[in-house]
Amino acid sequence: xxxxxxxxxxxxxxxxxxxxxxxxxxxxxxxxxxxxxxxxxxxxxxxxxxx
Length: 51
Hints:
This protein is mostly helical. The protein has one domain (7-48): Single alpha-helices involved in coiled-coils or other helix-helix interfaces, CATH 1.20.5. Helices cover 73% and strands 0% of the residues. The protein has two helices and no strands. The longest helix has 22 residues, at 26-47. The N and C termini lie far apart (36 Å).
């Protein structure tokens, strides 16, 4: 698993995430995270073009 996290650790992170953001905001936060990752990857690809 990435970052050396196993099943129990991921479960703990998920529970903390739910406590902090709440179940109602989970889709909103997940969508924002997905868009951020997509923009980051796009930025990385654009930087690879030779000048």
